[in-house]
Design brief:
Helix content is about 35%, strand content about 20%. It has 21 helices and 22 strands. A hairpin with a 2-residue loop joins strand 17 and strand 18.
């Protein structure tokens, strides 16, 4: 590449680069504009978007407005009323303080501002396109500020093409507004998308009211208030009862001095506060507000101001953990929680370990050479590969792309070459259950131990995947439809994936706002109650939320895990034999959808050696 001389970038080019650091997508623009509204003392904020925010964003507030002479300055880089000197950066008490939001948005969009202060008889209208002022003059407008953003990224097509679908971008916006509403329950928020109201909060100052508007009244009723103060840190908020657990941290919202933040350390402190009350790999619902001296935290770590750095991480962790634990202990949950959750147990049980063990850890669980099938699962022999190919074919027939097809590296090996593994499963003598979790079977080669939960999980996983591919899911129509109120994020996902959900057997019907009627469920969930069905749907949606697209492997695996028999469940001999028979017919009978082993073998020779029978 030929040498180019160093040169100062054209201001318009530099502004576009700077805009990309602050404004990543429509949701970023909404966040910055709403934070400006809150800093302006707004008590009511209305957000309207069209086309997922890519084509139109409007944020209207009743704050104190901007004086006419200062309006052009608001669109200049590094112009702000929120800090004056370098020391102010270490005691930030406002949400937006960089002076970058408006110029960053204006650099990549068409922006119109209408604003009026209480002491002005008329307001000011200001139009700026791609960073270039176009119009300015008086206008009739109420006290406060309205900012309209049109054609976001119209002059940066490379950025525009990386945006997701309108539905996905709308979901991101809804998520941002929901967080801001829970950050400021004293402010009334309203979100409109393509003419439809997605969210409305009363602004009555009660966190429970904001949480009810976002997550639904049923969730809000099952949340416990927390309040604790130590080390000059105050923790307040609401945490869900253990029965409200979820498969991801999506519903753990953390706020610091009124600002939503991301903090793995605080999230872990919240989870640790539950101690053994949550099942393995499940996460609580929590809305936690921290208040502390701004000088003891650095919020200037990330352009979006989402990540923070604490002066004393340990003190923050301890205070949050104590707040959650004290709140739960004082809530008298014993009568309203499942017995299994009330009984102390190891953090990671045999049913759902918190992590995939390394080979040496697997051998530590099974002393000696007792896990040949676990070790063999690292290989991919022909019969297992054929099973994977069959599943892949089902997925292709359902229209899934190659990257959505279940990965082959989770397919385990067959039994030893001289053994017909499926025949062994069908014909082995069932000896009984061990710890009401494992099926013990006598085989010519020794002792086979089958994990009943993951065995049934594999059977159901393949069944769900094939039914979705064929469009012939077994549906249990409900005599009395269930109602389910979704969060804004979940409602967007249901709207996006409603046809896919129906392929699996979920018959959903819009019932106004973010409420849906559930008229049918997969037959495997016919005996589940309304709360369990809602949990199943939330798991399915969470499996797709991160990528913003349908994830058949993860979805079917989640359904299978939910519907399968559980560790600790007593099975009759007939049920055990039926389970083994169905497992023998699976395309891949030796690993669950997550890659965990279903069967391990204790060889006959190993048993003899242990008893000294050489």
């Amino acid at each position: 590449m030929p040498h180019r001389p160093i040169a100062v970038l054209d201001p318009h080019v530099a502004n576009r680069i700077a805009a990309g650091e602050v404004i990543e997508r429509p949701a970023s623009a909404v966040k910055e504009l709403v934070e400006n509204s809150l800093d302006a003392g707004a008590r009511r904020v209305e957000v309207e978007i069209r086309g997922g925010g890519k084509e139109y964003i409007r944020v209207t507030d009743d704050g104190h407005g901007i004086p006419r002479a200062e309006v052009p300055l608001a669109f200049e880089r590094h112009a702000t009323s929120k800090i004056a000197k370098a020391e102010d950066l270490f005691a930030v008490a406002t949400l937006g303080f960089r002076g970058e939001a408006l110029p960053s948005i204006a650099a990549v969009a068409e922006v119109e501002m209408r604003t009026r202060t209480p002491d002005q008889l008329e307001g000011t209208r200001y139009v700026i396109v791609a960073g270039v002022p176009k119009e300015s003059g008086p206008v009739g407008t109420p006290v406060g500020t309205t900012v309209i953003v049109r054609r976001l990224f119209f002059n940066t097509p490379a950025r525009y093409k990386f945006l997701r679908t309108d539905t996905t971008e709308k979901r991101y916006v809804a998520d941002v507004v929901a967080r801001l509403a829970m950050a400021r329950p004293d402010v009334a928020f309203r979100l409109l998308a393509d003419g439809r109201e997605l969210l409305a909060t009363p602004g009555d100052g009660r966190l429970a009211s904001a949480v009810a508007a976002v997550y639904g009244h049923a969730v809000a009723r099952d949340m416990v208030p927390i309040e604790f103060e130590a080390d000059t840190i105050t923790v307040q908020g609401l945490v869900g009862k253990p029965s409200l657990h979820h498969s991801t941290r999506e519903r753990v919202a953390i706020f610091l001095n009124g600002r939503w933040i991301q903090s793995n350390a605080i999230a872990r402190a919240i989870e640790n506060g539950y101690d053994t009350l949550l099942p393995p790999r499940r996460f609580p619902v929590a809305v936690v507000h921290l208040t502390m001296d701004p000088r003891s935290v650095d919020v200037n770590v990330h352009p979006a101001k989402a990540e923070v750095r604490f002066r004393d991480d340990g003190a923050v962790f301890r205070t949050v953990l104590r707040a959650v634990r004290q709140g739960l202990l004082g809530a008298n949950l014993v009568g309203g929680m499942p017995l299994a959750a009330a009984v102390p147990r190891p953090a990671a049980g045999p049913e759902e370990p918190r992590h995939s063990p390394r080979p040496e850890e697997e051998r530590a669980h099974y002393p000696g050479e007792v896990a040949p099938l676990v070790a063999a699962a690292r290989e991919t022999p022909a019969p297992a590969a054929a099973g994977a190919a069959a599943l892949a074919q089902h997925a292709r027939e359902a229209g899934f792309t190659s990257e959505e097809i279940p990965p082959g590296d989770t397919v385990p090996a067959r039994a030893p070459a001289d053994v017909d593994a499926r025949q062994v499963l069908r014909e082995m003598t069932v000896l009984g259950q061990l710890h009401r979790t494992y099926i013990l079977g006598e085989t010519p080669a020794g002792l086979w131990i089958v994990d009943q939960h993951v065995a049934h999980e594999r059977i159901l996983y393949e069944r769900f995947l094939k039914e979705a591919a064929s469009g012939q899911a077994r549906v249990q129509q409900l005599l009395m439809p269930m109602t389910m109120t979704l969060s804004p994020v979940q409602a967007g996902l249901v709207e996006l994936f409603q046809d896919k959900l129906q392929q699996l057997g979920f018959v959903l019907e819009p019932f106004g706002g973010r409420t849906y009627l559930i008229r049918g469920v997969p037959a495997a969930f016919a005996a589940h109650d309304a709360g369990q069905i809602q949990g199943v749907l939330e798991d399915v949606l969470a499996a797709c939320e991160a990528e913003g697209r349908w994830q058949p492997h993860q979805v079917c695996a989640q359904l299978a895990c939910r519907a399968a028999v559980k560790a600790g469940q007593v099975l009759s001999e007939r049920q055990m034999k039926q389970l083994l028979e169905e497992l023998s017919q699976a395309d891949n009978p030796f690993a669950c959808p997550h890659g965990r082993p279903i069967v391990i073998e204790v060889p006959r020779a190993e048993i003899a050696r242990r008893f000294g029978r050489h």
